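Handout, section 3.2

Students often ask what a structure token actually looks like in practice. Rather than define it abstractly, here is a full record for Exopolyphosphatase. The first block is the sequence as you would receive it.
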Amino acid sequence: MKQNLPASSEVKEFAAIDLGSNSFHMIVIRIVNGSVRILSRLKQRVQLAQGLDRNNRLSAEAIKRGTDCLALFAERLQGFSPDNVQAVATYTLRQAVNSEEFLTAAAQIFPFPIRIISGVEEAKLIYSGVAHTQPDCGRKLVIDIGGGSTEMIIGDEFTPLAAESRPMGCVSFSKRFFAEGKISEKAFMQAYKTALSTIEDLSWEYRNLGWQTVIGASGTIKTVSQIIQENIDKSGLISAENLQLLIKRVLKFDHIDKLKMPGLSEERAPIFVPGLAILHALFENFRIKQMYYSEGALREGVIYSFEESFNQSDVHQRTINSLLKQFSVDRKQADRVAQSAALLGAKYQHWKNPEQAEEMRLMLHAGAMLHEIGIAVNHNGMHKHSAYLIKNSDLPGFDQAQQNLLTHLLRYHTKALKLNELTEENRYAAQDTKALIILLRLAVILNHSRSATESTEKFTLDTDENAAQWELEFEQGYLERNPLTAQELAKEKEILAKNHIRLVFK
């Protein structure tokens, strides 16, 4: 049910609760200037699915674990209006023949309604959570491996085109194939083949729709990415090759108690191997080459369902606008710098990874709009404050790699430049990061005098293939009419020279 969110000047808090098969999660947020700010996340391992018997009856012990967790959540939500809280239950309570018994017990200590949602509704909410927290990347396949079910969705922007939920999850498969914690290649292959047969009818339809990007959400996929990052590939990219290497390493262990790997938590270990088998089947069935991890999932989808207007705007820009208001940034100056940055970015043609050119221009725009947010802390060291604020903020629409890149842009948009101190980002070529920083620095310089600066679109920009030689040529008389700009460019020439970059301007 849609709620009317407060006007930008009014602040209210909202909560979304996900009663999953393995864990219960709660997220509490505040709407600030039309954007979501996360206040807290709470997670409790409940293992509800472990309490389902062969007749799909939920045990009294599992019900007690669930209601104990809800009592903790209720304490955090004291003072909340029921209109501002949404709690949804998924696979296990969908399956439980005595789900009403659980809901009755929950109502005694949790004064908010709980909805048991269908698998398709769960899938669509997961897609919404991903779409609102990840950068737009065209058509995407979103996958979420839960405790009892797995959701698979293809969509464009905020609209799901195909959404399915199938009864295979890391908790249910753990009970079925890895009893008593024993690990074997035979059990792994049985789990894999069962998962494959559960989803093989979707293969043609989904591959026919197609996608540009595959995004995974929730615990199993997060853990796989962490283990790959710690043991195989620093980028944490879940590629088909990296996944095979991980499976081979995992199958060297014969029991969950012995399964010790950097990146694998003690809590996740008991259900990791069945989740890995399901992920293997998904990669094979849909012929997935690589998958990225998303922090957004069901809970975030519930949060964004509070307000329909969230689905009608660009997530990047919504986040930027919120930060501009929050830190009282001079919007006219930000727009001036962004306009110059766009002109410079359009003239730069030597991206090391040309397939990322559009993403680079989007990041340049974000850096130009947000470079002055640090003034809210102090004008002195503003660039450092701006970088700190970005690094430590929730940025819906920006993934972790983009947030790191934006932090670098703001940190080095002015003053001293030490390119050798940049931390390496596996997703972005070092040359492209360097070029982006230089483009933003030049855009800031061209607007150094703020409204007193004469704006110009009449200039050329030439660079070499290595981004080591830069030549700016302005219309005749421009630098004479703008001596401060000429002076700042002369200073920039010296700074870049110390970084082995040659700047010529005339």
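Discussion prompt for tutorial groups: Residues 120-297 form a domain with the Nucleotidyltransferase; domain 5 fold (CATH 3.30.420.150). How would you have guessed this from the sequence alone?
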